[in-house]
Amino acid sequence: MRQLLFSVGLSALLAGHARAQTPTGSEGSLFLLLPTGAVAVGMGQAMVAEKPGSEGIWWNPASIAGQDKRELAIHHSKTIAGVGDALSFVLPTKSYGTAALSLNILNLGDQQVTDAFNDVIGVIFPRDVVLAGTYAASLTKRLSAGVNYKVVQIRFDCSGECSSVGPSVRSSRAVDLGAQYEVEFGAPLTFGAAVRNLGGKLNSEQTNQRDPLPTQVEVGAMYRLKFIDRYLKDTELRAAGSYINTREFGGKSVRVGTDVTYQGMLHLRAGFVGHDRRGDSSASLGFGLQSGGFVFDIARTFGGLPA
């Protein structure tokens, strides 16, 4: 039912856009457009030029290049589509770049299977799954690049007597490519670019053909305003913005976000996604706390399908 509501909501939001142009094909795995990570959500998803640790895997794989510490992270989310959990492990090396392995699962809610007498005879477990392997490296002091290789699955596993409806698995493979460039090494201005969900297709039950994944192209920049420390001691402000285009679906949107950091430990974030055809324009807020090697972030967006 959640998956059905999600599809109906997408169809209603896109109705006006669909009438305005002739579609060249539908796309599968729209769950790939849902945001992953509280830092990203808090900053309005303007992450292509940021370096947020393991979250960056889902936005720009180049962002983990140069990371000097191992990281184990869990990213949990709740949206209209379901409950998501992403697990990432990042392993940096001194000479051979940075590698990471990540698993992202969207739980769409269990569904009971009943017989002619309305007795429960089985349970279906619909899941959207992404397994990603990442490699990133610093090509120069200013330029870094990265790649994700992703296995994407739409799964309907079952328990009990449910042979008539499952299990079934639809799989595809895709890559993400990304790069980041610092104007000067250690400078406060960074540019980023990424292409996500490139090359993959999934069989669609609606169109009975292999539909392309929602490929996204994003470019953006991040600027650290150091002068704020003159007025607020031990305080740093980062501002980020990006422009994104989603092939055949979602259209174009602009994203902006800010992150105010106090003493390197406390983060206050705000962001905005504008002109996003996947839903209404939306604002977001976030909070972060860091103590030693432990980092906690939480965020909420107040509009659109990811709300």
Structure description:
With 307 residues, the chain is mostly beta strands. It has 2 helices and 16 strands. The protein has helices at residues 2-20, 38-42; strands at 71-78, 83-92, 98-107, 111-114, 120-138, 143-160, 168-182, 189-198, 201-203, 210-212, 216-225, 235-246, 251-262, 266-274, 282-291, 294-301. Strands 1, 2, 3, 4, 5, 6, 7, 8, 11, 12, 13, 14, 15 and 16 form a 14-stranded antiparallel sheet that branches. A two-stranded antiparallel ribbon has the order 9-10. A hairpin with a 6-residue loop joins strand 9 (201-203) and strand 10 (210-212). The longest helix is centred in the first third of the chain and has 19 residues, at 2-20. The protein is globular, with a radius of gyration of 20 Å. The chain starts with a helix and ends in a 6-residue tail after the last strand.
Topology:
Blueprint: H1 2-20, H2 38-42, E1 71-78, E2 83-92, E3 98-107, E4 111-114, E5 120-138, E6 143-160, E7 168-182, E8 189-198, E9 201-203, E10 210-212, E11 216-225, E12 235-246, E13 251-262, E14 266-274, E15 282-291, E16 294-301
Antiparallel strand pairs: 1-2, 2-3, 3-5, 4-5, 5-6, 6-7, 7-8, 8-11, 9-10, 11-12, 12-13, 13-14, 14-15, 15-16
